[in-house]
Write a structure and sequence with these properties.
The protein has about 150 residues and is mostly helical. The protein is built from eight helices and no strands.
Length: about 150
């Protein structure tokens, strides 16, 4: 009788283990979420950039390293794409910027405090250039991984 009661549990455990093993049996690691839809083909084939242009430790370190914002802005002076809202891959908190960094609302939102009703359009275009320039001005990191997940 005890074996019959345990059979469904044994079956569930076997199925779970099989599902976890499939990516490894197929010779592939599980997918890793990427914060930016980066096109390696365009950069390596079309633009003929060497790997070490972006990955500074590819020849010397255990890990290749990821490019910082300064590396990207060598070529990308204008933001790539637009969004009316904060993209899901961007990590931003008012606590860090206003509470800890003591930035005034005007830094990012312009004269919003002087408006009598919500403006039809943002008073300041909040984009990567605005963020990078502010980080440089306040001597904060411009490492991509600090703000992008």
């Amino acid at each position: 009788m005890g074996f019959i009661r345990r059979r469904p549990l044994v079956g569930v455990v076997i199925l779970l283990l099989a599902a976890l093993a499939i990516p490894f049996v197929a010779g592939r690691e599980p997918a890793v979420p990427q914060p930016v839809a980066f096109n390696h083909l365009k950069h390596t084939q079309e633009l003929q950039l060497a790997c070490d242009f972006c990955h500074q430790y590819v020849n010397t370190g255990a890990h290749a390293g990821l490019p910082n914002a300064e590396t990207c802005t060598v070529c990308h002076q204008v933001p790539q794409g637009t969004s009316d809202r904060l993209p899901s891959h961007v990590f931003y908190t008012h606590r860090r910027h206003v509470g800890i960094g003591e930035l005034e609302c005007v830094n990012c939102h312009g004269a919003i405090a002087e408006t009598e009703r919500p403006p039809a359009r943002a008073l300041v275009r909040i984009d990567m250039d605005l963020c990078i320039n502010c980080h440089l001005e306040h001597e904060q990191t411009v490492d991509c991984n600090a703000c992008h997940r």
